[in-house]
Specification:
Strand content: 15-25%
Number of domains: 3
Shape: globular
CATH architecture of the largest domain: 3-Layer(aba) Sandwich
CATH superfamily of the largest domain: 4-hydroxy-3-methylbut-2-enyl diphosphate reductase, catalytic domain
Bound molecules: 2-acetamido-2-deoxy-beta-D-glucopyranose
Structural class: alpha/beta
CATH topology of the largest domain: Cobalt-precorrin-4 Transmethylase, domain 1
Order of helices and strands: EEEHEHEHEHHHEHEHHEEEE
CATH class of the largest domain: Alpha Beta
Strand order of the largest sheet: 6-5-7-8
Mean pLDDT: 77
Number of strands: 12
Helix content: 25-40%
Radius of gyration: 21 Å
Length: 272
Amino acid sequence: MEVTNIPTEEGKKQFDVVNKGDVVVFPAFGASLDEIDKNVRILDTACPWVIKVWNVVEKHKKGDYTSIIHGKYAHEETIATASFAGTYIIVKNMTEAMYVCNYILGGELEGSSSTKEAFLEKFKYATSKGFDPDHDLAKVDIANQTTMLKGETEEIGKLVERTMMQKYGVGNINDHFISFNTICDANIFDTNFTFFFHERQDAMYKLVEQDLDLIRYWIDSEQRIGPGNRIAHKLKACSNATNPHGELVETENWLPEGPLTIGVTSGASTPG
Ligand SMILES: *[C@@H]1O[C@H](CO)[C@@H](O)[C@H](O)[C@H]1NC(C)=O
Ligand SMILES: *[C@@H]1O[C@H](CO)[C@@H](O)[C@H](O)[C@H]1NC(C)=O
């Protein structure tokens, strides 16, 4: 029935292929708000728990909170989550979160605090329009890209909470920081939800504890394997907007002499 992917160029979707009256299907990780505004019929298959994050972020926006989003700024889900937030900053990992917290504390954590210019340069792709770290980091909440490591989001949340306590005093923390769990209690969440992304992460930890000779992932089809002792795979890429995936390369003689124990895993959104 002519199903086409919307092509991307330099990380931006090219909507020329979409005509009025077309049906547009949103993938499981959602799509950003400006995409939803197109004059087309929408079939939205976004995962309910991705939508929950948006609801939280949107609620926080009404309370003038800046969302600190744990995610990758070029990831579709994070782009979509950010589009629901008013003011936001996206941090990729603990190092970036520490950088932000250090700025909030004026360099008290370790080393000297960066200048505002350096801060804005570092997060130029990862902040909302007109972001001002001196003004916008006074009331914050934490949101996450659901595929990030849960443990890391929790650590980042704790770090930010400690930082706000240090800066504003323990008694005033509720005016400066909201954690997801507080929101949970305010019954946005159905607590019976199973977050399979996180189950998968736990399964992955168990897998790597086994005595494995090798583990492979990031192969998109069986055609990448063979013939002979050859494999085509993508390289790990640094996350940037133009090339979020690494280059496809071929490796010869990649399997060492057997017998081998091989671990196999997949992306959470890979068809089973
Ligand atoms: C976080 O990401 C930066 C930039 O890619 C990297 O230099 C740093 O080592 C990372 N930190 C952690 C804790 O993974
Ligand atoms: C990440 O987001 C989910 C909501 O989708 C939430 O249930 C979970 O608690 C969040 N993790 C942290 C550490 O905040």
